[in-house]
Amino acid sequence: MGKVATVFKVYLEDIAHADSISKQISQELKPTGVQVDDIGFGIKVIKVMFVHEDQEGSTSFEEGLRKISGIKDVEVEDETLI
């Protein structure tokens, strides 16, 4: 089995809290990387990357993100073997 890198795009209920939510994600879920991106017209998303073993049931990262207050939606932006 190899390793997989999964990048999630996290949409926020209120973009004013982007920095605090990204810090909370870093502290609680310990991702490989977190980045706040402006996608235009004042809209911000948080991109979160996890590197994990290739196995079934890796949706726990998405479930963990959805539990954080202030997050409106989560989608997988990219997933690849590394």
Task: Describe, in plain words, how this protein is organized in 3D.
With 82 residues, the chain is an alpha+beta fold. It has one domain (3-81): 2-Layer Sandwich (Alpha-Beta Plaits). Helices cover 23% and strands 49% of the residues. It is built from two helices and four strands; from the N terminus they run E-H-E-E-H-E. The protein has helices at 18-29, 60-66; strands at 3-12, 33-40, 43-53, 71-81. A four-stranded antiparallel β-sheet has the order 2-3-1-4, covered by helices on one side. The longest helix is centred in the N-terminal third of the chain and has 12 residues, at 18-29. The chain is globular, with a radius of gyration of 13 Å.
Features:
2 helices; four-stranded antiparallel beta sheet; Alpha-Beta Plaits; 4 strands; single chain; alpha+beta
Write the layout of secondary structure elements.
Layout: E1 3-12, H1 18-29, E2 33-40, E3 43-53, H2 60-66, E4 71-81
Antiparallel strand pairs: 1-3, 1-4, 2-3
Can you give me a brief rundown of this structure?
With 82 residues, this protein is an alpha+beta fold. It has helices at 18-29, 60-66, and strands at 3-12, 33-40, 43-53, 71-81. The protein is built from 2 helices and 4 strands.
**What would you call the structural class?**
alpha+beta
The secondary-structure element order is EHEEHE
Percent range for β-strand residues: over 45%
Distance separating the two termini: 11 Å
How many discrete structural domains?
A: 1
